[in-house]
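Structure first, sequence second, as always.
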């Protein structure tokens, strides 16, 4: 069953709007909002976990790309009305798609490097020795 939200007063939409407006809420919930196909694709390449995709079918042409759906088969997809989309969209040019994603830890001690010869890894080891 497809989930549809048409009211800007819906509690879930209000929560997403709070994420857009308030950095305190983003830090507390460890979630953020992404708008547009390109940005969602970049987030997926950066290994961010996308929880929900909100789609305005009156704007979105061609559906959600296979790349997005294949990388995250558990994504909840919600159809939203144009009024709801206008409330959430923060760009003038838009694709009709908004995603809700989890933030990643940016702590230095949680950085992972692909190779042992990485200059960044060597620098990180030096920083750890100095502290």
């Amino acid at each position: 069953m497809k989930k549809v939200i048409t009211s800007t007063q819906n509690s879930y939409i209000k929560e997403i709007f709070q994420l857009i407006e308030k950095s305190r809420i983003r830090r507390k919930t460890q979630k953020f909002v992404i708008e547009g196909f390109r940005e969602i694709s970049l987030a997926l390449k950066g290994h961010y976990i996308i929880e929900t995709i909100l789609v305005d079918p009156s704007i979105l042409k061609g559906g959600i790309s296979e790349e997005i759906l294949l990388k995250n088969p558990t994504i909840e997809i919600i159809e939203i009305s144009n009024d709801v989309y206008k409330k959430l969209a923060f760009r003038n040019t838009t694709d009709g798609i908004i995603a809700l994603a989890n933030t990643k830890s940016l702590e230095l001690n949680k950085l992972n490097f692909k190779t042992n010869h990485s200059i960044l890894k060597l620098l990180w080891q030096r920083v750890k020795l100095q502290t």
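Margin note: The longest helix spans residues 119-130.
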